[in-house]
Write a structure and sequence with these properties.
The structure is a homodimer of 142-residue chains. The first copy, chain A, is of the alpha+beta class and 142 residues long. Chain A has 3 helices and 8 strands. Chains A and B meet through β1, β2, β5, β6 and β7 of A and β1, β2, β5, β6 and β7 of B. β7 of chain A pairs antiparallel with β5 of chain B.
Chain lengths: 142, 142
Amino acid sequence: MSTSSELNDIEEGLALKPKFDAAGLVTCVATDAATSEVLMVAHMNEEALRRTIASGEAWYYSRSRNALWRKGETSGHVQRVVEMRIDCDQDAIWIRVEQSGAACHTGRRSCFYRKVEAGEGGARLSFVDAERLFDPKAVYCK
Amino acid sequence: MSTSSELNDIEEGLALKPKFDAAGLVTCVATDAATSEVLMVAHMNEEALRRTIASGEAWYYSRSRNALWRKGETSGHVQRVVEMRIDCDQDAIWIRVEQSGAACHTGRRSCFYRKVEAGEGGARLSFVDAERLFDPKAVYCK
């Protein structure tokens, strides 16, 4: 448990003290600086966060590949960071980015290309803003 | 590991198949439906997701309190869900909400009231959009 003074320091202080989870990660939300749409949700470890701040380009940590990852290193679809923010308890990062090409590995501009709606017999999905800007096979299977 | 057909189903299908993590949670980003700003990042378990879809109001799961939590149940600052989306691998939810009052327990409209910038000797934070809309002591310590 944090003391009240530590908590105040984290929530009201001006020192960057990211609260990494048990796997050493914080959540990062990337939004489009021009349209404000949410492009993706991913994770950063300490090194990814450090490199993002230092370079002004988004770096993440891939949980599936267990690897540090510069966004766009394969696809060329890099993210230039316009602004970075951190939340009250310092366990989530929000970056507003200039996205070149598309953020999603499926070829869509955003990873959030399906809407969830209540329906009879349970929730269902429908596509929205789901046009592909690139062909994933052509980009990732060279 | 998922087979290629399972993966295609998750990414391109219209069935809701949330990928809960080892703790039974998915990440949820809430943005302001009017201004598009990111209000908060939190988590939902299966029950919170079900209740959010059914009621049209945001429910979360608090990791610190180990409890299901209707946003605003103490503060009155509920979130009415205007649209819900899910991402490509179905492990993150994005809700656009009408936020009554403020989203952050510190009294700010958004939890992201500090900017992170590179500086000599390391990153530093500065307040931005950090006015308090309510006094947390008055709301939570009754």
